[in-house]
Amino acid sequence: MRCLIVEMDPIFSEMLCDKIESLGHSATRARTVQDAKPLLQKGLLDIVMFDHAMQDAQIMRLTRLKDTLCPGAKMIKLTDCEMLPDRSGVRLAPALAQVLAAPTAPIAQRPGPLAAAIAWLT
Questions:
Q1: Starting at the edge strand that comes first in sequence, how are the strands of the sheet with 2-6 ordered?
Q2: Considering the domain 2-121 in this protein, what is its CATH number?
Q3: pLDDT-based confidence at 11, cuts 50/70/90?
Q4: What gap in Å lies between CA 93 and CA 48, rounded to an integer?
Q5: CA-to-CA separations, 11 to 8, 44, 121, in angstroms, rounded
Q6: Per-residue pLDDT tens for 96-107?
Q7: H helices within the chain, ranges in order?
Q8: Where along the chain do its domains lie?
Q9: Which end is more exposed in the chain, N or C (fewer Cβ atoms within 10 Å of the end residue's Cβ)?
Q10: What is the pLDDT of residues 40-59, one digit of tens each?
Q11: Which of 43, 67, 52 is nearest to 9 (CA)?
């Protein structure tokens, strides 16, 4: 899998890249949507992960770029919650909730949930 992580926190994005690479996948980082654009233009991505704190307008811009430049890539919102924020009561898959708890320890200490999340996306 080829992953792009769009995340403002350089420590968290580096940690996540290291874990993804330790599982045998490739990972690239970008701090902003503007930084991500040239990486998306290459069209060689399978997963785009993005910061939960990103503004809605930036998420829409990233989504449009991904849909245009890498239409087959899947998107993951990096979040620290187990429920969708729209109060719909929809829960995230347990493995994803563990993996995407940014910037907490489960990713650094247990690569199992990360591997499960990547496998779930393929």
A1: 26-30, 2-6, 47-51, 74-78
A2: 3.40.50.2300
A3: confident
A4: 18
A5: 9, 24, 24
A6: 444 444 444 444
A7: 10-22, 33-41, 56-69, 94-99, 106-109, 111-121
A8: 2-121
A9: C
A10: 999 889 889 888 778 888 88
A11: 52
